[in-house]
Amino acid sequence: MTDRFHRPVRVPLEAFEALLGGHDPADVTRVAHDTASALLNRARGERDAEVLDRMIAFTDEHGIDDIAEVWAPASAESLPGSLWRLYLVRESVKRDPEDASYVFRRGLEVDRGIGHVVAGAVTPTGPDEIVALTDEILRGAFTGDFSIALERAAAFCAVMSQGAAALAGDAERTEPDRAHTDTLRSARFLLFAQELHASALLARDDALD
């Protein structure tokens, strides 16, 4: 999944490597929280739109490996864990916008709630629109109300989960392997939706750190 990427982040990689090399969970946790907080604080103080664009698109050029190494082990209901999920959701869409938009549109067909409204999706939601949506959600995390950005991401994941589940049902009889893959995909998006929603509630109470 990440073979084509090279080293990301201009935050102190030497510090990451020293701490991660020591395998001290407390140090790894501290670095995860400190770097996530520093990134968010810098973004909120940034007035240059081009700099914000580069922060949002950072993993496009530099990859997601080192971010994953530091943030992925963090609790889902934490600042680094939440930022990791926001970047990962965006990454999943950027990898294959056509497929992602197809799953999302299928989700819209079966969604009985207002997930697409909360997510802020425009219709029709094609490849360009779904990439723009995930960029907008991540930008909102940096420049707006963090809890709202998390709720939008949670709603997006919920619609994607429904779409993948519906596609699994469509393929169950004729393409069992594809149905299995889509079922797993649905479960992953559902888990992300639940985790992002829980983090949004904490952020709303200023309890997400």
UniProtKB/TrEMBL annotation:
GO cellular component, alphabetical, reads: DNA-directed RNA polymerase complex
The answer to whether the entry has keyword Transcription is: yes
Query: Keywords for this entry?
Result: DNA-directed RNA polymerase, Transcription
From the Swiss-Prot or TrEMBL record, give the protein name: DNA-directed RNA polymerase subunit beta
Please name the source species: Pseudoclavibacter chungangensis
Q: What is the lineage of its organism?
A: Bacteria, Bacillati, Actinomycetota, Actinomycetes, Micrococcales
